[in-house]
Structure formats: structure tokens, C-alpha cells
Design a protein that fits this description.
alpha/beta; DNA polymerase, domain 1; Beta Polymerase, domain 2; Beta Polymerase, domain 3; 4 domains; 7-stranded parallel beta sheet; 5-stranded mixed beta sheet; 25 helices; 17 strands; 42% helix; 14% strand; globular
Length: 572
């Protein structure tokens, strides 16, 4: 039973309780418990099974939630959730997907009008019944009506690559206005989360109407959903929604800090402000009615006794304590990466030749690469058997002699088969410069089988690294069920590197597990898994993931010069 699954159960319980009007402290307890589980690197199932360990010692997990976690781990479900689902129709939960409609408003629609589906809600809005409810009105009713057809789409989360491309284009366009002196993206996109629910853009402008007109006219904008004097909400053609807020220069830093989040991080910042007799909000830092700071984020953090904290770390996972102690890490940057150890060519499912990939990598400033085409198990990708692989390596060595200024390793992305053996025998693997072992198939196997496969690969003296360890694909394929404590310990003991795969669909390892790997002293590699020369463009997403994990240049193996990197390899 994975932590994320239990967290999802707790979040749903919280929503259902809030719809029913339960005590706010009770609702908050479930939400806090869910967040603790989402950020926990160790499996709660393993923790419960370890003598002398107590799950109740975790922050936000008391005796009551601890007992419920034990029930979910043992049975796979929570009776309380099933009971709540019987009491609240599924259609009421669907209403939560409408932008701006939270559990309290959904509860009012359910209790006051008896609405139990989006279709009924649409009819009530069209009949003007929703506008008559206390706390709603005609404006809210219209907003709900417009949001119903897009409820499912708006409820989706979008890959960081999609969110970033949209945000960057909008911001670049707004920068063309002379009336805008400063503009940038905030929110989860700025924190570089792997997925985003929506986008927040902040601007300083002496003509807010002009800024909003410019946004409304942008080719990416499908529809203006709402517009006021200083805020505009639009829906982009990708389906993602974007808020533009025009703020005064004196409030820009405070607004950026506030809207960047995370909520949990900001709660601690506000608490520190109160302890110092201050108040922090999106308008600035105040002592009573007196404005103290807010033009820059540095001012806001300084007011509460902290240095500037990089946005990627703002998740309340210990960054406040590190900042207070003056121990914030110097996070890795894209420019630190010297090598890329995972890429494909026309020998398997790539679209470029060995030479083209090498020249493209060299043009981007890389000093070394590994060509890692698929092994034979991945037949749909024209995977290589031993004979074809050896011929491929000959071709790589020839290009290595002809292309100067970059080192090229003869590598292979070798599948770990469902029976826990390697897709190629040891005799072949021993001839490789670099072997990255992966799970592609059988990801739904029980934990015991998944772990046997991973541990066998780690113990194989020819394997240098485990690539995209969980095999997940964001939004459409869940991760394999891994015992990370055992996995990390084995990798550390055997000197096997672990990958952060930069593909926005993967970003595997995730940030929580990458941070845990660091605690075991395991060097991380950040690779692009490129299948063409433009594939190198995804590298920043992998670096962002590493930054969210708090990784520095020294924590990542392929920031080292080639000679130093080679010393990390098991066959060196």
C-alpha cells in the first residue's frame, strides 16, 4: 500500500467531511495527515512492520490517524470513507472540479437545493436558483455555469512542460508593453512542481487595463473567464487556466512570495511574522498599519529573520530550519551538468544517428555522453540483441574516434525482466562502458517481485545505474510498488547510481525520493532520455526536480569532469 494512495484517501475524507459541515479541526487533521504521507520517503507499511517504530511519531499523525493508516495498509480501504461516500452523492464531489467552487459551496448547493449532479447544477443556474442562495449571487452563478462544461478538464493537472511553455509565452508577450515594468510567473509553476493545476502571473503596471487587454488578445487565450480592475482569469487553449494580477510596486515582492506558495510554507512565514509583531500578506509586511517591507521577496524574508529561500524548496520540508541556521544548500544549476548518460539513436527507437546525437550534445556544452539504446525485450522499440549491440558499439567507437571534444561511452539501457534476470547476459554486459538497468514491463507485479528484480540488478557487477526507477508515467501510469528503504540501502552498498529522468512525463525519481537517496549518500545522475537532438531540451526539468530535492552540484554524479565521473563506475 503506497503512501500516495493513503494520502488520497485522507484528502477525499477531508473533502467529504467539509461538505457535511464537520469540525474544521477534524478536516484539517486529515489534510495535514495526507500531506505528511505524500512527503514521506519511507513506506508507512514498512514503518508499521518495524518493531520499535511508531507511525504516531510522524508530524500530523496522531493515534486516531495512525490506527486508520494501519487499517488501510492491512485491508486496502477505509470503512469511514465508504460510509461517507454513501452519505454524499458522487455528483456533489464532481462539483469540486468547477473553478472557485469549494466544499462549503458544494455543500450549500447539495443541502439547500438538493443538487446531486453537474446536470442538475446547470439547470438550477439557468433557472436563477443558485443566485438566490446566500453567499452566491448572479456573478457566482454565471461563473459556475461557465465552469460546468469544463469541470473535468479544469480538474486535470498539467505537466510542468505544458504549464511552463504557456506561462513563458504569456510572460514574454506582456513584457513587450512599456506600461509593464515587471512580470513573472508565480504559483506551483515557479516552484517547479512536476504538474500544475493552474497558472499565476504577477505584474507591475501603470495601466492595468492595457495589460489585461493584451492578455485577452493573446493567441493562446481561448476565453476570458473573469475580469476586474486588477485581476483577470483566462482559460488557455491547452485547457489550463491563468490568473493575471496587477499589483503595486510596493507589494510586488510580497505578492510574489504569497502567490508562489506553498500554502504550508506560507503558514510558517506568517507565524514567524506574528511572533515578531508583524503581519504578512499579499500586500506587504506590516507592523500594525505601518508598511514595513514588500517590494522584493528578499525584504519579506528578511523581515521574518530569514534569507531568501529558493522557490523550489518552499514546501515546508525543513527549508525554514535550514534557512534559520544559515545552511540552505546551493542548489544545482543546468550549467553544472557535464554529461548525459541516457539517450537513443536510430539503432533502436531514436530519430538521430550516433554522430548527430554526439554533435548535438557537444554543441550544448556537454563533455561526455553514453549512447544507451534499448535491449531486445523492448521489441516495439527495435531493441538490440547481443549481435546487433556489438555491431552498434563498433559504430559508436568509430564515431568516438572521429568526433573530438566529447567522450562517447558504449552503453545500453537494459531491461530487468519480469523473472528478475537481465535482458542480456553478463558476458555482453561486461563489454559495455555503461549499463543503465530499467523496469519497462511488469510494473504491476507485487512488491516482492519488483524488489527481487531491482535488487538482482543492483547486485549485478555490470550495472552502473538504475534508470527511471519506478517506471511511472505522470497522469497515466502509476509507479511500481518499491520498498525504498531497502532499495536505497542496496544502491548505496553496491555503489549503483540512481537516475532522475528529465522527461516531463517521467521525472523519476520524484523530488521526495531523490532527497531520500541523497540522505543515503547515493550519487544521482540527471539524464534526458533523448530520442532525438531536440530531446536535450528537457534537461532543465530534471534539474528542477533535483533542486526541489535540495540537491547540490556535489550530489549529482554527472556534474563531475569525465575522469572523475569514470571513477564512480563499478568497472573503473
Amino acid at each position: 500500500m503506497q503512501n500516495q494512495h493513503i494520502a488520497a484517501i485522507f484528502n477525499e475524507v477531508a473533502d467529504l467531511l467539509e461538505i457535511q459541515g464537520a469540525n474544521s479541526f477534524r478536516v484539517r487533521a486529515y489534510r495535514n495527515g495526507a500531506r505528511t504521507l505524500e512527503n514521506l520517503s519511507e513506506s508507512v507499511a514498512d514503518l508499521l512492520a518495524t518493531p520499535g517504530r511508531s507511525i504516531e511519531a510522524l508530524e500530523g499523525i496522531g493515534k486516531d490517524l495512525g490506527a486508520k493508516i494501519a487499517v488501510v495498509v492491512e485491508t486496502g480501504q477505509l470503512p469511514q470513507l465508504e460510509e461517507l461516500r454513501q452519505q454524499v452523492p458522487a455528483g456533489v464531489m464532481d462539483m469540486l472540479r468547477i473553478p472557485g467552487l469549494g466544499p462549503k459551496k458544494a455543500a450549500t448547493l447539495f443541502k439547500e437545493l438538493g443538487l446531486i449532479s453537474l446536470a442538475q447544477l446547470k439547470e438550477a443556474c439557468e433557472a436563477g436558483k443558485v443566485a438566490e442562495l446566500k453567499g452566491f449571487g448572479k456573478k457566482t452563478q454565471q461563473s459556475i455555469l461557465e465552469g460546468i462544461p469544463h469541470a473535468q478538464e479544469a480538474g486535470k493537472r498539467f505537466l510542468i512542460s505544458i504549464a511552463t511553455a504557456s506561462a513563458d509565452e504569456i510572460v514574454a508577450d506582456l513584457k513587450q508593453l512599456s506600461s509593464i515594468s515587471q512580470v513573472a510567473v508565480a504559483g506551483s509553476c515557479r516552484r517547479r512542481k512536476e504538474t500544475c493545476g493552474d497558472l499565476d502571473v504577477l505584474a507591475i503596471s501603470d495601466n492595468s487595463a492595457e495589460a489585461m487587454d493584451r492578455l485577452a488578445a493573446h493567441p493562446l487565450v481561448e476565453k476570458v473567464l473573469a475580469r476586474g480592475e486588477t485581476k483577470q482569469r483566462v482559460r488557455l487553449r491547452t485547457g489550463i487556466e491563468l490568473d493575471l494580477r496587477v499589483v503595486p510596486a510596493a507589494s510586488y515582492g510580497a505578492a510574489m512570495q504569497y502567490f508562489t506558495g506553498s500554502k504550508e510554507h506560507n503558514i510558517v512565514i506568517r507565524r514567524r511574522a506574528i511572533e515578531r509583531g508583524l503581519k504578512v500578506n499579499e500586500y506587504g509586511v506590516f507592523r500594525g498599519e505601518e508598511y514595513v517591507a514588500g517590494r522584493s521577496e528578499e525584504e519579506v524574508y528578511a523581515a521574518v529573520g530569514l534569507p531568501f529561500i529558493p522557490p523550489e524548496l518552499r514546501e515546508n520540508r525543513g527549508e525554514i530550519e535550514l534557512a534559520e541556521a544559515g545552511k540552505l544548500p546551493k542548489l544545482i544549476e543546468v550549467a553544472d551538468i557535464q554529461g548525459d548518460l541516457h539517450m537513443h539513436t536510430t539503432a533502436s527507437d531514436g530519430k538521430a544517428t550516433i554522430r548527430e546525437m554526439a554533435e548535438a550534445a557537444k554543441a550544448r556544452g556537454l563533455k561526455y555522453i553514453a549512447i544507451t539504446d534499448h535491449s531486445k525485450r523492448v521489441s516495439m522499440a527495435n531493441g538490440l540483441d547481443a549481435t546487433r549491440l556489438r555491431e552498434h558499439w563498433k559504430a559508436i567507437r568509430k564515431v568516438r574516434e572521429e568526433v573530438t571534444g566529447i567522450e562517447i561511452l558504449c552503453g545500453i539501457e537494459c531491461d530487468i525482466l519480469e523473472d528478475a534476470t537481465m535482458d542480456l547476459d553478463d558476458e555482453v554486459l561486461s563489454e559495455a562502458d555503461w549499463v543503465i538497468a530499467v523496469l519497462h514491463y511488469g510494473l504491476k507485479q507485487p512488491r516482492e517481485q519488483i524488489m527481487q528484480r531491482l535488487l538482482n540488478a543492483i547486485r549485478n557487477p555490470n550495472v552502473d545505474a538504475i534508470g527511471h526507477p519506478t517506471g511511472r508515467m505522470l497522469s497515466n501510469r502509476p509507479p511500481a510498488d518499491i520498498d525504498f528503504t531497502t532499495f536505497f540501502k542496496a544502491a548505496a552498498d553496491h555503489g549503483v547510481l540512481l537516475e532522475i529522468n528529465s522527461s516531463p512525463e517521467r521525472l523519476d525519481l520524484d523530488d521526495v525520493q531523490a532527497a531520500a537517496a541523497k540522505s543515503y549518500g547515493i550519487p544521482i545522475i540527471i539524464d534526458t532520455d533523448s530520442h532525438n537532438t531536440s530531446g536535450f531540451n528537457v534537461l532543465p526539468y530534471g534539474v528542477d526536480q533535483a533542486r526541489r530535492a535540495g540537491l547540490t552540484k556535489n550530489d549529482v554524479a554527472n556534474t563531475r569532469p569525465f575522469a572523475e565521473f569514470k571513477r564512480l563506475l563499478r568497472k573503473s
